[in-house]
Write a structure and sequence with these properties.
260 residues; alpha+beta; OB fold (Dihydrolipoamide Acetyltransferase, E2P); five-stranded mixed barrel; two-stranded antiparallel ribbon; 7 strands; rod-shaped
């Protein structure tokens, strides 16, 4: 119902301004539609077939599924990498363990996961429903689901048993032995001397002294998986720090399992 307003001469009258504005908007929309139809009739604008939009929707859905799938896979391999290499274990050696930590942390897997997640979020934003809800909550939900699924895949061992590990093994192989650290399994033990069997199947003599860091003590048994930081001298590794590792070496088909 139109409201009453006072005219300049003091009389009350109905306010038709809104009605006039609505009428003008309707006329403007009608003119725009008419212009578009005229261009279509003159073949200045070509209507795309319905299958074009169907194909576009299918490709969008496929791309979104692929990005989310890759995000979950990369996160699962990041969890596997953390479980196998235990980069945080090197922090027990203080500053001596920093080089090994930075080298063995799965930076490249996280970068790949975040990249695929970024493109997935871009594709999600193209859907109309994202304009009806808080987009920040949608992003948080996608990230949370991807992390949970990646963690579940790793916990169930699917990324070990059902997926090819050749590329992962190739990229992470050098992270068990380096100029300043060594990872392997105890094959024999003597006073301040350990024979370590590395993932490459090579036996390495490890020696340490009273100044070496031993966060868990210096008592080792056959089959213990060790992380060591120190320096090489020819084929002998002089350890400045030794810690027992809980890394799951069977995930990368380590020959050390033969000692168990």
């Amino acid at each position: 119902m139109p409201k009453l307003v006072q005219s300049p001469n003091g009389y009350l009258r109905h306010d038709n301004s809104n009605k006039s504005m609505n009428s003008q908007q309707t006329q403007s929309d009608h003119c725009s539609c008419q212009k578009v139809m005229d261009k279509i009739n003159r073949q200045e604008i070509k209507m795309r077939p319905h299958c074009y939009f169907v194909a576009g929707s299918l490709l969008l859905a496929l791309g979104l599924f692929l990005m989310i799938f890759l995000t979950i896979i990369f996160f699962s391999y990041a969890f596997l990498h953390l479980r196998v290499h235990e980069p945080f274990g090197y922090l027990n050696f203080g500053s001596l363990g920093w080089p090994a930590f930075w080298a063995t942390f799965p930076w490249w897997l996280l970068i790949l996961a975040l990249t695929s997640l970024f493109f997935g979020i871009i594709l999600i934003h193209r859907y109309d429903f994202t304009r009806k809800y808080n987009f920040g909550i949608i992003i948080a939900g996608v990230v949370g689901v991807s992390l949970i699924c990646g963690f579940a895949i790793d916990e169930l061992g699917i990324n070990e048993n059902k997926m090819p590990l050749c590329c992962y093994n190739h990229l992470s192989n050098g992270q068990f032995t380096n100029d300043s650290w060594l990872v392997g399994q105890v094959s024999s033990y003597d006073d301040r001397k350990i024979d370590i069997l590395t993932r490459a199947g090579k036996h390495t003599l490890v020696i340490w002294d009273e100044e070496s860091l031993l966060p868990q003590g210096g008592k080792f048994i056959l089959g213990d998986q060790l992380k060591l930081v120190g320096q090489w001298q020819n084929d002998t590794f002089f350890a400045q720090g030794i810690a027992i590792s809980k890394g799951h070496f069977s995930a990368i088909d380590c020959p050390c399992d033969d000692l168990k």
